[in-house]
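Dear colleague,

Following up on Tuesday's group meeting, I ran the structure prediction for the four-component complex that the binding team flagged. I've pasted the input sequences exactly as they went in, so you can double-check that nothing got truncated or mislabelled along the way. The structure tokens for the whole assembly follow below. Feel free to forward this to whoever is handling the docking comparison.

Inputs:
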Amino acid sequence: MPFQPVSRLEDLTLFNKLTEEEIRQILKTARQQHIQAGEFYFMQDDPAEAFYVLTKGKVRLTQFTADGQQILLRIIVPVTPFGAVALADHETYPVSAQAVEACTALVWGKTVLSQLLGRFPQMAVNAVKIMAEHVQEFQQRFTEIATQRVERRLARMILRLAHQTGVKTPRGVEVNLPLSRQDLAEMVGTTLYTVSRTLSQWESQGLIQAGRERILILHPHGLVKIAEEET
Amino acid sequence: MPFQPVSRLEDLTLFNKLTEEEIRQILKTARQQHIQAGEFYFMQDDPAEAFYVLTKGKVRLTQFTADGQQILLRIIVPVTPFGAVALADHETYPVSAQAVEACTALVWGKTVLSQLLGRFPQMAVNAVKIMAEHVQEFQQRFTEIATQRVERRLARMILRLAHQTGVKTPRGVEVNLPLSRQDLAEMVGTTLYTVSRTLSQWESQGLIQAGRERILILHPHGLVKIAEEET
DNA sequence: CGTCGCTTTGAATACGGTCAATTTTTGTGG
DNA sequence: CCACAAAAATTGACCGTATTCAAAGCGACG
């Protein structure tokens, strides 16, 4: 499963095959940036000037279409890198990154980055790996949305989110993100109404318990079945 | 527009900022591989062992879903790299690459690649850029399919293909690819029937002329309007 | 306690999918 | 060169999923 957040900075793919000492040196070149809920790290189409690693808080990555529609591509939780396009030259951010709560991130500016890539070529190789994972994820999500119906896509998304941020509770796995029906709809490419109906149905089947911006998975296996079963 | 094929090898993003001499050295380490129509360069989920640059022919990149459905992610034409995941360690191909006609490609195996990346760190940076473009393309296509209806998606795809491989003829721009209705359907995430109906409608409006595995764009502006207009 | 935002639910509708039958095109072999 | 088979494309009828619009319910928070 791609984009699993890691718990320690040193475990980031970006630092693969680097020594503790090298990682320490790289980390020293970062600055810390705190931002408030609602603020943006960057906006879609801005020149990609910095690369981030989120260490605290939650960040939404969204993309707007020409006609003003919006889709939610991902929720970033600690510790996960974002804005990796900045590792390439002369790119613009393909998404906007907005803090959903107070956040802290490590930031490397463009010039620092290119120095780092010069000194630690392995970082570039690691960056390729990160990007490769992104490509895979989106190719797969593209394929999914092109071939699967809403119910299945939603089941997959919820399982994915549970995997990413789920916390075990006595009654089941809770998705620890404040996601509205609208947010979920934007993630799977449907409407908030269809999401609401689907969740209600699952709730009546005892699979989940849904609340306001909250989902508790009572019976994961049931969801998996919906996500994978034939037809 | 990402993935524009280039006409000369030296213009590949992969070779950005390298000298003629360096490029020559890199090219010397490639071997040439010819394959027949129908054969595969690699299959989805195979370990990514080589990176390719197509110099002759046409290659289809497809992805299968668990339940056997298939979608066509891209048609590769010369000169375009594919299988770039091999530039990252320990990845598997996310797609299958099948020759649609007799093809020639330059091939770099995994071990050669990592030597090259060591000698020419700039190549890794360039690879990041390539991957970044892929990510952008698929994020955008994902957003499109999630928010736009079939007619618009199809219009966009045809314009994209025309941009990529279109050849001017006295009567209009011809998409120079043997794409069946089924192929187009797989690319935009719909059925061959809907594609057929939509093309017929456009034909009756004088926008295009459609034939068996052939599309001639008579009135590009009309398509652009469908691709971009509000609502 | 009232307002605001999120959520639910119903009814009507439309877009696009499915299935079946037919036509057109292409390529092949006699 | 023609005839025939195979593949691709078209078209119609029907139907189902998901969207749209409207209205009402619920919960959080000042």
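Residues 180-182, 192-193, 196-197, 199-200, 210, 212-213 of chain A lie near DNA strand C (CB under 10 Å from a C1').

Cheers,
M.
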